[in-house]
Amino acid sequence: MATRCTSPASLAVFAVISSVLIAVYAAGSGVTCPVLSLAVVTGLVSLLWWLRRRRDDRTDRQVCVLVLGDLGRSPRMQYHALSLSKHGYHVTFVGFLETKPHEDVLREEKIKMEPITEVKGVRVGPKVFRYVTKVILQSLQLLHVLLKMETQSHILMQNPPGLPGIAVAWLVCVLRGSRFVIDWHNYGFTIMALSLGETHPLVRLARWYEHVFGPLAAHHLCVTTAMKDDLQTNWGIRATTLYDRPAAVFRETPLKLQHELFFRLSNTHPQFQSSRCDDEEEDEEAERTVFSVRDLTDDTVTLRAERPALLLSSTSWTEDEDFSVLLEALEEYEGFIKGGASLPSLVCVITGKGPQKDHYRKLIDSLHLEHVEICTPWLEAEDYPVLLGSADLGVCLHKSSSGLDLPMKVVDMFGCCLPVCAIHFNCLHELVKHEENGLVFRDSQELAEQLKSLLSEFPSSDGRLGEFRTNLQTSRGQNWDDNWDQNVLPLITAP
User: Fold this and answer.
1) I need a surface site. Which of 116, 138, 210, 285 has the fewest CB within 10 A?
2) Of the candidates 45, 46, 22, which has an alpha carbon nearest to the alpha carbon of residue 34?
3) d(CA 448, CA 186)
4) How far apart are CA 20 and CA 487, in angstroms?
5) pLDDT at 108 > cutoff 60
6) pTM
7) Which of 299, 276, 397, 296 is nearest to 348 (CA)?
8) Cα 488 versus chain centre, distance
Protein backbone atom coordinates (compact mmCIF):
# COMPACT_ATOMS: atom_id res chain seq x y z
CA MET A 1 0.00 0.00 0.00
CA ALA A 2 1.33 3.43 -0.91
CA THR A 3 2.43 5.68 1.90
CA ARG A 4 -0.14 8.32 2.70
CA CYS A 5 1.22 11.65 1.48
CA THR A 6 0.84 14.23 4.25
CA SER A 7 4.02 16.24 3.62
CA PRO A 8 3.00 18.15 0.45
CA ALA A 9 0.51 20.31 2.34
CA SER A 10 3.23 21.31 4.79
CA LEU A 11 5.66 21.89 1.94
CA ALA A 12 3.17 24.13 0.15
CA VAL A 13 2.73 26.25 3.26
CA PHE A 14 6.50 26.27 3.78
CA ALA A 15 7.04 27.45 0.20
CA VAL A 16 4.63 30.35 0.67
CA ILE A 17 6.22 31.38 3.97
CA SER A 18 9.70 31.10 2.46
CA SER A 19 8.70 33.32 -0.45
CA VAL A 20 7.42 35.97 1.94
CA LEU A 21 10.59 35.83 4.04
CA ILE A 22 12.75 36.09 0.92
CA ALA A 23 10.72 39.11 -0.23
CA VAL A 24 11.11 40.78 3.18
CA TYR A 25 14.83 40.06 3.23
CA ALA A 26 15.28 41.28 -0.30
CA ALA A 27 13.44 44.52 0.38
CA GLY A 28 15.95 45.46 3.05
CA SER A 29 19.13 43.95 1.70
CA GLY A 30 19.37 45.19 -1.85
CA VAL A 31 18.96 41.77 -3.44
CA THR A 32 17.95 42.28 -7.05
CA CYS A 33 14.56 41.22 -8.43
CA PRO A 34 16.04 38.62 -10.87
CA VAL A 35 17.85 36.89 -8.01
CA LEU A 36 14.66 36.86 -5.93
CA SER A 37 12.63 35.53 -8.85
CA LEU A 38 15.19 32.79 -9.45
CA ALA A 39 15.03 31.74 -5.81
CA VAL A 40 11.22 31.56 -5.83
CA VAL A 41 11.08 29.69 -9.15
CA THR A 42 13.73 27.24 -7.94
CA GLY A 43 11.73 26.57 -4.79
CA LEU A 44 8.50 25.99 -6.71
CA VAL A 45 10.19 23.72 -9.25
CA SER A 46 11.68 21.69 -6.41
CA LEU A 47 8.26 21.37 -4.80
CA LEU A 48 6.71 20.34 -8.11
CA TRP A 49 9.39 17.67 -8.66
CA TRP A 50 8.91 16.29 -5.12
CA LEU A 51 5.14 16.05 -5.51
CA ARG A 52 5.26 14.39 -8.91
CA ARG A 53 7.76 11.74 -7.81
CA ARG A 54 5.21 10.51 -5.23
CA ARG A 55 3.29 8.82 -8.06
CA ASP A 56 3.33 5.02 -8.10
CA ASP A 57 1.52 2.13 -9.81
CA ARG A 58 -1.45 2.51 -7.48
CA THR A 59 -1.98 6.12 -8.60
CA ASP A 60 -3.61 5.10 -11.89
CA ARG A 61 -6.48 3.44 -9.95
CA GLN A 62 -7.14 6.47 -7.70
CA VAL A 63 -9.73 9.10 -8.59
CA CYS A 64 -10.95 12.06 -6.53
CA VAL A 65 -14.60 13.06 -7.02
CA LEU A 66 -14.98 16.61 -5.72
CA VAL A 67 -18.13 18.55 -4.81
CA LEU A 68 -17.87 21.91 -3.07
CA GLY A 69 -21.34 21.21 -1.69
CA ASP A 70 -23.43 18.58 0.06
CA LEU A 71 -22.56 15.07 -1.11
CA GLY A 72 -25.96 13.72 -0.07
CA ARG A 73 -27.69 16.16 -2.40
CA SER A 74 -25.35 15.57 -5.34
CA PRO A 75 -26.86 12.48 -6.98
CA ARG A 76 -24.97 12.75 -10.28
CA MET A 77 -21.61 12.85 -8.49
CA GLN A 78 -22.64 9.89 -6.34
CA TYR A 79 -23.37 8.00 -9.57
CA HIS A 80 -19.92 8.97 -10.89
CA ALA A 81 -18.32 7.57 -7.73
CA LEU A 82 -20.27 4.32 -7.99
CA SER A 83 -19.45 3.89 -11.68
CA LEU A 84 -15.75 4.42 -11.03
CA SER A 85 -15.78 1.89 -8.19
CA LYS A 86 -17.52 -0.70 -10.40
CA HIS A 87 -14.58 -0.43 -12.78
CA GLY A 88 -12.05 -1.05 -10.02
CA TYR A 89 -11.10 2.53 -9.18
CA HIS A 90 -10.59 3.64 -5.58
CA VAL A 91 -12.59 6.84 -5.13
CA THR A 92 -11.98 9.60 -2.63
CA PHE A 93 -15.30 11.44 -2.41
CA VAL A 94 -14.68 15.00 -1.17
CA GLY A 95 -17.46 17.37 -0.10
CA PHE A 96 -19.77 18.51 2.68
CA LEU A 97 -21.40 15.74 4.72
CA GLU A 98 -24.64 17.51 5.61
CA THR A 99 -27.07 14.81 4.48
CA LYS A 100 -26.45 11.08 4.16
CA PRO A 101 -25.48 9.82 0.71
CA HIS A 102 -27.18 6.77 -0.75
CA GLU A 103 -26.57 3.45 0.99
CA ASP A 104 -24.88 2.04 -2.13
CA VAL A 105 -22.22 4.76 -1.81
CA LEU A 106 -21.78 4.17 1.92
CA ARG A 107 -21.48 0.40 1.49
CA GLU A 108 -18.96 0.47 -1.34
CA GLU A 109 -15.51 -0.36 0.07
CA LYS A 110 -13.73 1.37 -2.81
CA ILE A 111 -15.38 4.73 -1.98
CA LYS A 112 -13.88 6.71 0.89
CA MET A 113 -15.49 9.90 2.18
CA GLU A 114 -13.23 12.88 2.79
CA PRO A 115 -15.40 15.51 4.51
CA ILE A 116 -14.77 19.22 4.26
CA THR A 117 -16.67 21.97 6.02
CA GLU A 118 -18.26 25.04 4.53
CA VAL A 119 -16.18 28.06 5.48
CA LYS A 120 -18.22 31.07 6.61
CA GLY A 121 -15.48 33.70 6.44
CA VAL A 122 -15.58 36.93 8.42
CA ARG A 123 -18.99 38.27 9.39
CA VAL A 124 -18.19 41.99 9.38
CA GLY A 125 -17.39 44.51 6.68
CA PRO A 126 -18.69 44.96 3.12
CA LYS A 127 -20.25 41.95 1.40
CA VAL A 128 -17.50 41.79 -1.21
CA PHE A 129 -14.84 41.71 1.51
CA ARG A 130 -16.68 38.94 3.40
CA TYR A 131 -17.01 36.91 0.23
CA VAL A 132 -13.34 37.31 -0.71
CA THR A 133 -12.18 36.18 2.74
CA LYS A 134 -14.50 33.18 2.52
CA VAL A 135 -13.03 32.22 -0.86
CA ILE A 136 -9.47 32.54 0.45
CA LEU A 137 -10.14 30.42 3.53
CA GLN A 138 -12.05 27.80 1.51
CA SER A 139 -9.14 27.68 -0.97
CA LEU A 140 -6.60 27.02 1.77
CA GLN A 141 -8.77 24.31 3.33
CA LEU A 142 -9.37 22.59 -0.01
CA LEU A 143 -5.70 22.84 -0.96
CA HIS A 144 -4.75 21.18 2.31
CA VAL A 145 -7.30 18.37 1.87
CA LEU A 146 -6.32 17.60 -1.73
CA LEU A 147 -2.57 17.69 -1.09
CA LYS A 148 -2.68 15.43 1.94
CA MET A 149 -4.45 12.70 -0.06
CA GLU A 150 -2.63 10.01 -1.98
CA THR A 151 -1.88 11.15 -5.52
CA GLN A 152 -4.89 10.74 -7.78
CA SER A 153 -4.86 9.96 -11.50
CA HIS A 154 -7.87 12.26 -12.00
CA ILE A 155 -9.85 14.87 -10.12
CA LEU A 156 -13.46 14.93 -11.31
CA MET A 157 -15.19 18.07 -10.08
CA GLN A 158 -18.75 19.30 -10.22
CA ASN A 159 -19.39 22.86 -11.35
CA PRO A 160 -21.18 24.78 -9.91
CA PRO A 161 -20.14 25.53 -7.28
CA GLY A 162 -16.76 26.11 -8.83
CA LEU A 163 -15.31 29.07 -6.96
CA PRO A 164 -12.68 28.50 -5.60
CA GLY A 165 -12.66 24.75 -6.36
CA ILE A 166 -11.76 24.90 -10.06
CA ALA A 167 -8.55 26.89 -9.56
CA VAL A 168 -7.47 24.84 -6.52
CA ALA A 169 -8.17 21.50 -8.19
CA TRP A 170 -6.34 22.62 -11.36
CA LEU A 171 -3.31 23.72 -9.29
CA VAL A 172 -3.19 20.37 -7.47
CA CYS A 173 -3.41 18.54 -10.81
CA VAL A 174 -0.49 20.60 -12.15
CA LEU A 175 1.59 19.90 -9.06
CA ARG A 176 0.86 16.18 -9.07
CA GLY A 177 0.53 15.40 -12.74
CA SER A 178 -3.14 14.42 -12.38
CA ARG A 179 -5.80 15.02 -15.00
CA PHE A 180 -8.55 17.51 -14.25
CA VAL A 181 -12.13 16.83 -15.39
CA ILE A 182 -15.01 19.29 -14.92
CA ASP A 183 -18.61 18.13 -15.02
CA TRP A 184 -20.59 21.23 -16.02
CA HIS A 185 -24.06 21.11 -14.48
CA ASN A 186 -24.65 24.82 -15.01
CA TYR A 187 -22.76 28.11 -14.73
CA GLY A 188 -22.10 29.44 -11.25
CA PHE A 189 -22.30 33.10 -12.25
CA THR A 190 -25.82 32.71 -13.68
CA ILE A 191 -27.01 31.21 -10.38
CA MET A 192 -25.44 34.08 -8.43
CA ALA A 193 -27.12 36.57 -10.79
CA LEU A 194 -30.57 35.33 -9.70
CA SER A 195 -30.13 36.92 -6.27
CA LEU A 196 -27.50 39.60 -6.92
CA GLY A 197 -28.23 40.78 -10.45
CA GLU A 198 -26.09 40.40 -13.56
CA THR A 199 -24.13 43.63 -12.99
CA HIS A 200 -23.10 42.91 -9.40
CA PRO A 201 -19.29 42.89 -8.91
CA LEU A 202 -19.35 39.37 -7.45
CA VAL A 203 -21.28 38.07 -10.45
CA ARG A 204 -18.80 39.69 -12.84
CA LEU A 205 -15.96 38.20 -10.81
CA ALA A 206 -17.53 34.73 -10.91
CA ARG A 207 -18.06 35.00 -14.68
CA TRP A 208 -14.45 36.03 -15.26
CA TYR A 209 -13.24 33.23 -12.97
CA GLU A 210 -15.18 30.48 -14.78
CA HIS A 211 -14.08 31.79 -18.19
CA VAL A 212 -10.40 31.89 -17.17
CA PHE A 213 -10.04 28.70 -15.14
CA GLY A 214 -12.76 26.51 -16.68
CA PRO A 215 -10.93 25.90 -20.00
CA LEU A 216 -7.80 24.72 -18.13
CA ALA A 217 -9.31 21.29 -17.41
CA ALA A 218 -8.11 18.35 -19.49
CA HIS A 219 -11.63 17.01 -20.12
CA HIS A 220 -15.14 18.38 -19.83
CA LEU A 221 -18.56 16.80 -19.34
CA CYS A 222 -21.90 18.60 -19.56
CA VAL A 223 -25.57 17.78 -19.07
CA THR A 224 -27.18 18.94 -22.34
CA THR A 225 -26.41 19.42 -26.01
CA ALA A 226 -27.34 23.09 -25.59
CA MET A 227 -24.63 23.50 -22.94
CA LYS A 228 -22.13 21.62 -25.10
CA ASP A 229 -22.78 24.07 -27.95
CA ASP A 230 -22.54 27.09 -25.63
CA LEU A 231 -19.26 25.88 -24.11
CA GLN A 232 -17.82 25.43 -27.61
CA THR A 233 -19.09 28.72 -29.03
CA ASN A 234 -18.54 31.09 -26.11
CA TRP A 235 -15.84 29.41 -24.03
CA GLY A 236 -13.76 27.48 -26.55
CA ILE A 237 -14.36 24.27 -24.59
CA ARG A 238 -15.03 20.92 -26.24
CA ALA A 239 -17.25 18.94 -23.89
CA THR A 240 -18.85 15.51 -23.95
CA THR A 241 -22.60 15.45 -23.29
CA LEU A 242 -23.46 13.01 -20.53
CA TYR A 243 -27.22 13.08 -20.13
CA ASP A 244 -28.49 12.31 -16.65
CA ARG A 245 -30.05 8.88 -16.41
CA PRO A 246 -31.99 7.46 -13.48
CA ALA A 247 -30.23 5.00 -11.20
CA ALA A 248 -31.67 1.49 -10.95
CA VAL A 249 -33.46 2.37 -7.68
CA PHE A 250 -35.83 4.69 -9.59
CA ARG A 251 -38.67 2.48 -10.77
CA GLU A 252 -42.39 1.97 -10.20
CA THR A 253 -43.01 0.96 -6.60
CA PRO A 254 -44.88 -2.26 -5.73
CA LEU A 255 -48.08 -1.74 -3.73
CA LYS A 256 -46.69 -3.33 -0.58
CA LEU A 257 -43.71 -0.96 -0.49
CA GLN A 258 -46.00 1.98 -1.23
CA HIS A 259 -48.15 1.13 1.77
CA GLU A 260 -45.13 0.66 4.06
CA LEU A 261 -43.83 4.13 3.17
CA PHE A 262 -47.28 5.75 3.44
CA PHE A 263 -47.76 4.16 6.85
CA ARG A 264 -44.37 5.34 8.12
CA LEU A 265 -45.02 8.86 6.86
CA SER A 266 -48.46 8.87 8.51
CA ASN A 267 -46.72 8.77 11.90
CA THR A 268 -45.22 12.21 11.33
CA HIS A 269 -47.39 13.76 8.60
CA PRO A 270 -51.16 13.79 9.12
CA GLN A 271 -51.71 14.24 5.37
CA PHE A 272 -51.00 10.49 5.02
CA GLN A 273 -53.30 9.38 7.83
CA SER A 274 -56.60 7.68 7.07
CA SER A 275 -59.55 10.00 7.67
CA ARG A 276 -62.31 7.53 6.75
CA CYS A 277 -64.87 6.88 9.46
CA ASP A 278 -67.32 4.58 7.70
CA ASP A 279 -68.46 1.70 9.91
CA GLU A 280 -67.60 -0.81 7.23
CA GLU A 281 -63.99 0.35 7.28
CA GLU A 282 -63.61 0.42 11.05
CA ASP A 283 -62.01 -3.00 11.07
CA GLU A 284 -59.15 -4.03 13.31
CA GLU A 285 -58.08 -6.52 10.66
CA ALA A 286 -56.86 -3.74 8.36
CA GLU A 287 -54.06 -1.16 8.41
CA ARG A 288 -54.95 2.03 6.59
CA THR A 289 -53.47 5.19 5.17
CA VAL A 290 -55.30 7.82 3.16
CA PHE A 291 -54.07 6.07 0.00
CA SER A 292 -53.93 2.36 0.82
CA VAL A 293 -55.28 -0.51 2.89
CA ARG A 294 -53.36 -3.55 4.09
CA ASP A 295 -55.38 -6.61 5.03
CA LEU A 296 -53.68 -8.05 8.12
CA THR A 297 -55.19 -11.48 7.60
CA ASP A 298 -53.48 -12.21 4.28
CA ASP A 299 -51.04 -9.25 4.03
CA THR A 300 -52.51 -8.01 0.75
CA VAL A 301 -52.43 -4.32 -0.11
CA THR A 302 -54.93 -2.39 -2.23
CA LEU A 303 -55.28 1.23 -3.19
CA ARG A 304 -58.41 2.94 -1.95
CA ALA A 305 -60.95 3.74 -4.65
CA GLU A 306 -61.69 7.17 -3.17
CA ARG A 307 -58.11 8.10 -2.44
CA PRO A 308 -56.72 11.56 -3.22
CA ALA A 309 -54.23 12.00 -6.04
CA LEU A 310 -50.60 12.13 -4.91
CA LEU A 311 -48.81 15.11 -6.45
CA LEU A 312 -45.04 15.25 -5.95
CA SER A 313 -42.41 17.91 -6.40
CA SER A 314 -38.82 18.04 -5.16
CA THR A 315 -36.63 21.08 -4.76
CA SER A 316 -33.49 22.59 -3.29
CA TRP A 317 -35.57 25.65 -2.33
CA THR A 318 -33.37 28.08 -4.28
CA GLU A 319 -34.03 31.15 -6.44
CA ASP A 320 -34.24 29.14 -9.66
CA GLU A 321 -37.53 27.53 -8.51
CA ASP A 322 -40.52 29.79 -7.86
CA PHE A 323 -42.91 27.70 -5.79
CA SER A 324 -45.49 30.47 -5.65
CA VAL A 325 -46.42 29.24 -9.16
CA LEU A 326 -47.42 25.84 -7.75
CA LEU A 327 -49.20 27.31 -4.72
CA GLU A 328 -51.28 29.63 -6.92
CA ALA A 329 -52.14 26.70 -9.21
CA LEU A 330 -53.28 24.64 -6.21
CA GLU A 331 -55.54 27.51 -5.13
CA GLU A 332 -57.07 27.56 -8.60
CA TYR A 333 -57.49 23.77 -8.48
CA GLU A 334 -59.34 24.18 -5.19
CA GLY A 335 -61.59 26.68 -6.93
CA PHE A 336 -62.38 24.16 -9.68
CA ILE A 337 -63.62 21.65 -7.09
CA LYS A 338 -65.67 24.24 -5.21
CA GLY A 339 -67.13 25.28 -8.55
CA GLY A 340 -68.50 21.78 -9.08
CA ALA A 341 -65.77 20.10 -11.12
CA SER A 342 -65.49 16.35 -10.61
CA LEU A 343 -61.88 16.18 -9.48
CA PRO A 344 -60.07 14.24 -6.75
CA SER A 345 -58.66 15.84 -3.64
CA LEU A 346 -54.91 16.33 -3.70
CA VAL A 347 -52.06 15.54 -1.34
CA CYS A 348 -49.10 17.59 -2.54
CA VAL A 349 -45.72 16.48 -1.22
CA ILE A 350 -42.76 18.84 -1.71
CA THR A 351 -39.46 17.27 -0.67
CA GLY A 352 -36.02 18.77 -0.19
CA LYS A 353 -33.88 21.15 1.86
CA GLY A 354 -32.70 24.64 1.03
CA PRO A 355 -32.46 28.32 1.99
CA GLN A 356 -35.99 29.36 0.96
CA LYS A 357 -37.87 26.50 2.61
CA ASP A 358 -38.97 28.52 5.66
CA HIS A 359 -40.22 31.31 3.40
CA TYR A 360 -42.46 28.98 1.43
CA ARG A 361 -43.62 27.06 4.49
CA LYS A 362 -45.00 30.33 5.83
CA LEU A 363 -46.85 30.85 2.54
CA ILE A 364 -48.20 27.29 2.71
CA ASP A 365 -49.39 27.81 6.29
CA SER A 366 -51.27 30.93 5.20
CA LEU A 367 -53.36 28.97 2.67
CA HIS A 368 -56.80 27.71 3.70
CA LEU A 369 -57.57 24.83 1.36
CA GLU A 370 -60.21 22.16 1.95
CA HIS A 371 -59.46 19.78 -0.90
CA VAL A 372 -55.68 20.20 -1.16
CA GLU A 373 -53.20 19.26 1.56
CA ILE A 374 -49.52 20.13 1.38
CA CYS A 375 -46.58 18.72 3.33
CA THR A 376 -42.83 19.31 3.03
CA PRO A 377 -41.00 16.27 4.44
CA TRP A 378 -37.29 15.54 4.20
CA LEU A 379 -36.89 12.00 2.89
CA GLU A 380 -33.96 9.67 3.38
CA ALA A 381 -32.14 8.71 0.18
CA GLU A 382 -33.75 5.25 0.24
CA ASP A 383 -37.31 6.58 0.67
CA TYR A 384 -37.22 9.21 -2.07
CA PRO A 385 -37.35 6.81 -5.06
CA VAL A 386 -40.07 4.78 -3.33
CA LEU A 387 -42.24 7.89 -3.01
CA LEU A 388 -41.56 8.90 -6.63
CA GLY A 389 -42.61 5.44 -7.75
CA SER A 390 -45.82 5.77 -5.73
CA ALA A 391 -46.94 9.19 -6.97
CA ASP A 392 -49.59 9.94 -9.60
CA LEU A 393 -48.10 13.11 -11.09
CA GLY A 394 -44.88 15.09 -10.75
CA VAL A 395 -44.40 18.86 -10.95
CA CYS A 396 -41.08 20.52 -11.76
CA LEU A 397 -40.49 24.24 -11.20
CA HIS A 398 -36.77 24.23 -11.99
CA LYS A 399 -36.11 27.14 -14.32
CA SER A 400 -32.50 26.99 -15.42
CA SER A 401 -30.51 30.14 -14.60
CA SER A 402 -28.50 29.65 -17.78
CA GLY A 403 -31.23 27.96 -19.83
CA LEU A 404 -28.70 25.20 -20.53
CA ASP A 405 -29.13 22.53 -17.84
CA LEU A 406 -31.87 19.98 -17.20
CA PRO A 407 -33.54 19.10 -13.88
CA MET A 408 -32.28 15.83 -12.40
CA LYS A 409 -35.56 15.49 -10.52
CA VAL A 410 -37.44 14.99 -13.80
CA VAL A 411 -34.93 12.32 -14.87
CA ASP A 412 -35.66 10.46 -11.63
CA MET A 413 -39.42 10.87 -12.10
CA PHE A 414 -39.21 9.45 -15.60
CA GLY A 415 -37.22 6.52 -14.22
CA CYS A 416 -40.26 5.81 -12.05
CA CYS A 417 -42.56 6.22 -15.11
CA LEU A 418 -44.08 9.26 -13.41
CA PRO A 419 -45.56 11.82 -15.84
CA VAL A 420 -44.48 15.41 -15.23
CA CYS A 421 -45.76 18.95 -15.62
CA ALA A 422 -42.65 21.13 -16.00
CA ILE A 423 -42.17 24.87 -16.31
CA HIS A 424 -40.80 26.00 -19.67
CA PHE A 425 -37.23 27.09 -20.38
CA ASN A 426 -35.02 26.97 -23.46
CA CYS A 427 -33.59 23.44 -23.60
CA LEU A 428 -36.31 21.60 -21.65
CA HIS A 429 -37.38 19.87 -24.88
CA GLU A 430 -34.25 17.70 -24.63
CA LEU A 431 -35.98 15.91 -21.74
CA VAL A 432 -39.71 16.69 -21.50
CA LYS A 433 -41.67 15.98 -24.68
CA HIS A 434 -44.88 17.99 -24.52
CA GLU A 435 -47.98 15.78 -24.89
CA GLU A 436 -45.78 12.65 -24.94
CA ASN A 437 -44.29 12.09 -21.48
CA GLY A 438 -45.73 15.15 -19.79
CA LEU A 439 -46.81 18.75 -20.25
CA VAL A 440 -44.96 22.05 -20.30
CA PHE A 441 -46.48 25.16 -18.71
CA ARG A 442 -45.50 28.82 -18.43
CA ASP A 443 -47.55 30.15 -15.51
CA SER A 444 -49.75 29.10 -12.60
CA GLN A 445 -53.00 29.37 -14.58
CA GLU A 446 -51.71 27.03 -17.29
CA LEU A 447 -50.49 24.58 -14.63
CA ALA A 448 -53.88 24.61 -12.91
CA GLU A 449 -55.62 23.81 -16.19
CA GLN A 450 -53.18 20.95 -16.81
CA LEU A 451 -53.85 19.49 -13.34
CA LYS A 452 -57.57 19.70 -14.02
CA SER A 453 -57.22 17.99 -17.40
CA LEU A 454 -54.86 15.22 -16.29
CA LEU A 455 -56.75 14.33 -13.11
CA SER A 456 -60.29 14.54 -14.50
CA GLU A 457 -60.53 10.75 -14.86
CA PHE A 458 -58.54 9.83 -11.73
CA PRO A 459 -58.05 7.12 -10.47
CA SER A 460 -58.75 5.46 -13.82
CA SER A 461 -55.66 4.57 -15.82
CA ASP A 462 -57.41 5.75 -18.97
CA GLY A 463 -56.97 9.25 -20.30
CA ARG A 464 -53.89 11.40 -20.91
CA LEU A 465 -52.21 10.67 -17.57
CA GLY A 466 -52.34 6.94 -18.23
CA GLU A 467 -51.17 7.49 -21.81
CA PHE A 468 -48.11 9.45 -20.63
CA ARG A 469 -47.24 6.71 -18.13
CA THR A 470 -47.52 4.05 -20.84
CA ASN A 471 -45.24 6.08 -23.11
CA LEU A 472 -42.65 6.29 -20.33
CA GLN A 473 -42.87 2.55 -19.71
CA THR A 474 -42.25 1.74 -23.38
CA SER A 475 -39.59 4.36 -24.14
CA ARG A 476 -36.95 3.66 -21.53
CA GLY A 477 -33.63 4.80 -22.90
CA GLN A 478 -30.05 3.92 -22.05
CA ASN A 479 -29.42 3.45 -18.33
CA TRP A 480 -26.79 5.36 -16.34
CA ASP A 481 -24.20 2.57 -16.34
CA ASP A 482 -24.23 2.06 -20.11
CA ASN A 483 -24.31 5.81 -20.71
CA TRP A 484 -21.34 6.36 -18.36
CA ASP A 485 -19.33 3.49 -19.83
CA GLN A 486 -19.80 4.91 -23.31
CA ASN A 487 -19.03 8.56 -22.57
CA VAL A 488 -16.86 8.84 -19.43
CA LEU A 489 -14.87 5.64 -19.12
CA PRO A 490 -12.85 6.36 -22.32
CA LEU A 491 -11.79 9.72 -20.85
CA ILE A 492 -10.61 8.11 -17.61
CA THR A 493 -8.76 5.22 -19.26
CA ALA A 494 -7.15 7.29 -22.04
CA PRO A 495 -3.32 7.25 -21.86
Assistant:
1) 285
2) 22
3) 29
4) 45
5) yes
6) 0.78
7) 397
8) 19
